[in-house]
Amino acid sequence: MNPFVKFMASTTGRIVRIVAGLALIGWGLLGLGGTAGLIVAIVGIVPLAAGVLDFCLFAPLFKNPMSGKQIRAG
């Protein structure tokens, strides 16, 4: 198992993704504004959703399942 994928599937990794997603959304909406801010906020939804829904988008690149639960079980 790739250590990066293992970390991202851990509780700490999920929290990091959630915080990063919230930070991107906040920065985009409050810090940047305009079209660029909206794009950054939309991009921030991806790590937020990945952390909340417990999946890792990078896992398939390392031939692992996307599900955090399956990664932790393996």
Rounded average pLDDT: 93
Low-confidence stretches: none
Q: Distance N terminus to C terminus?
A: 8 Å
Largest sheet: none
Order of helices and strands: HHHH
The shape is elongated
Helix content: over 70%
Main features:
single chain, 74 residues, mainly alpha, 4 helices, 74% helix, elongated
Descriptive overview:
The chain has one domain (7-73). It is built from four helices and no strands. The chain starts with a helix and ends with a helix. By secondary structure, the chain is mainly α. The longest helix has 22 residues, at 11-32.
List strands and helices in order, with pairings.
Blueprint: H1 3-9, H2 11-32, H3 34-53, H4 68-73
Helix pairs in contact: 2-3
In short:
With 74 residues, this protein is mainly alpha-helical. The protein contains 4 helices and no strands. It has one domain.
